[in-house]
Amino acid sequence: MSSETIVTALFLISAVIAAGVLINAIFPTITRTADTFGSASAEADTRMRTDFRIVNTFADSTQVKIWLKNVGSTRLHTNEVDTGDVYAGSPSNFDRKSLSTRYQIPDNVNSYWDPGETLTITINDADIISRLPSSGENVYVAVVLPNGVRRDMIFTRS
């Protein structure tokens, strides 16, 4: 009888040790997977709540102006907007520029592009202006925020 008790106790101790080893081996993988899904979920949530529309555009021989309205449910810090990109030129010959120093938010009282506010982009770089088509032809503009939200438009140059 005592030998059966000792054998049973040894099996129980072995099972507990095996379970501990298994948990220590699997737990870091589960934690990394959960962190990955959490990060992806947070990024998707930010993208879904971020939205803007191109409400007006203008291009002549000296500049391109684009007006954007934040129609999403989240506000963007100006540091985020600074790292966005704007593309402009003819539909087959355009160039990329950083949004940094090329935009302003009229009547802004904080460091955010809040929902409902309009952002104005002015591009007067020579390399963009040289890529613009002649008057009456199509101009391509696209604005891409750092989180991947993108809007583009083709309009006729004045």
- The fold-level CATH name of the largest domain is Immunoglobulin-like
Average pLDDT metric: 84
Strand content: 25-35%
Global structural class:
alpha+beta
Q: Which geometry do the CA atoms define?
A: elongated
* Helicity level: 25-40%
H-E string = HEEEHEEEEEHEE
SS elements, strand count = 10
What is Rg? 28 Å
- What is the top-level CATH class of the largest domain? Mainly Beta
Task: Describe it.
The chain is an alpha+beta fold and 158 residues long. It folds into two domains: 1-49; 52-156, Immunoglobulins (Immunoglobulin-like), CATH 2.60.40. 36% of the residues lie in helices and 34% in strands. The protein is built from three helices and ten strands. It has helices at 2-49, 78-82, 126-129, and strands at 52-59, 64-70, 76-77, 85-90, 93-98, 103-104, 112-113, 118-123, 138-144, 150-156. Strands 1-2-8-6 form a four-stranded antiparallel beta sheet, with no helix packed on it. Strand 4 (85-90) and strand 5 (93-98) form a beta hairpin. The longest helix has 48 residues, at 2-49. It is elongated, with a radius of gyration of 28 Å. 16% of the residues are buried.
What characteristics describe this protein?
4-stranded antiparallel sheet, 158 residues, alpha+beta, Immunoglobulin-like
Please describe the topology of this protein.
Layout (H helix, E strand, L loop, with lengths): L1 H48 L2 E8 L4 E7 L5 E2 H5 L2 E6 L2 E6 L4 E2 L7 E2 L4 E6 L2 H4 L8 E7 L5 E7 L2
